[in-house]
Amino acid sequence: MYRRILLALDGSRSSLNALEQAVSMALTTDAEVSAMFVVDDSDLFFEVSPGDRHWLMADIIAYGKQVLARAGERFSAAGVRWSSRLAETPGTPAKIAEAIIAEADHWSADLIVMGTHGHRGVRRMVLGSVSEHVVSKTVRPVLLVRQQSRGDTP
Known about the structure:
With about 150 residues, the protein is of the alpha/beta class. It has helices spanning about 15-30, 40-45, 55-80, 95-105, 120-125, 130-135, and strands at about 5-10, 30-40, 80-90, 110-115, 140-145. This is Universal stress protein.
C-alpha cells in the first residue's frame, strides 16, 4: 500500500481537505507524509506591477512557511510521521506541476495527494490547472481532493 505520501499544499480550502485525506491515509497505512508548498509567481502576472514583485514574493514565501507549519502541527497532533519542503519555481501551473512531480520522483512517493479548485474561465484557459498537469505527466497515482461547496456537508 502507500508508505510515502507527497502532499502538495497551497493553503486553499481544497488543499486543507487534501491535508485531512493525507492524515487519514497515513494513519490507515502507517505512511510517512511529505508536505510541499511551491512558491510561484504566476499570480503576480495577473495582479501586480513589476516594482511590487519582490515584496509580494517575500509574502508568498512567508505564507508558504506558515501553511507548512500548520500542516506539521496537524500531522504531529495525529501522530503522523512527516517532513516538509518549500520549493520556489517561476512561472506557470505546468512549472509548478513539474516541481511537484520532480519532488515525488526524488522522494520516491507512492502517492501524490493534492486539492483541486475547479477554476474556470479566462485564467484557467491561459494558465491551465496544476492538478491536470500533474495527473497527465506523472506515472504515480494521484488523489485529487475537490473543494467542498458551501452547501456540502463535511
